[in-house]
Amino acid sequence: MKMRRSERIVAVTKILTDNPYKLISLNRFTERFDAAKSTISEDLAIIKGVFSKEKMGRVETVSGAAGGVRFIPSKGEGDIKEIIRDVCKRLSNSDRVLPGGYIYMTDLIFDPELMSNIGKVFATKFADLEADYIITMETKGIPIALMVARALNLPLVSIRRNSRVTEGSVVSINYVTGSSQKIETMSLARRALPEESKVIIIDDFMKAGGTAKGMLDLMAEFKAEVVDLGVLVETANPKDKLVDDYTSLVILEEVDKVKREIVVKPSSWIQELN
Description:
By secondary structure, the chain is of the alpha/beta class.
């Protein structure tokens, strides 16, 4: 039995949103729903209009024999500001203050709904960079990077702190952590990343930028082009980081260990959104 238009639109929307950035031919829809191309095109026009009006993403049509339709997930500027305001509010909780002036973030990083939204925020920012891979450092960077990779429909590559025999030949470098000035090691399997790939690096936290600088140096060993570096939270101090170009979402301005106060704010590009 043929579907009613309302039912078919729901099904088409589900297929598109489950496959971000994937080009799907109109023939797939016509065969699955036993409908003419003109009918499917009308359905897609309705979906495209609603997504555009509600700022839920873009539906793009690619013409030609190898063409089709694809869904580009994105967040509207209002939604982005609301998501980041929520992160700031939750990070400001005094119960998060840890000894040494650190703040507890693990519950936020492993919150699937929140990280899904954060992934779409980064994906909106990085939509036009045409990257091949998302790169991160184990372990807390993985949930954020995975959601960015999901939103951009890209493979995720995780750099390890120690090489594993199960990964074969690896490239390892030493780097100096920005905060403690300790020498650490990071490794990546040679087969994990083809040379000369375009990559986006994602990390959860940046203080002086030592880990980020290490990841940039490791990418240079693979002759990779780093098109951007995304960070969930950066500290206001030190002001001068070991890396110059990056995109952060939240700035940690101060942690008062005595008063148990945390001051955070959205980063400058978030604040500039309308």
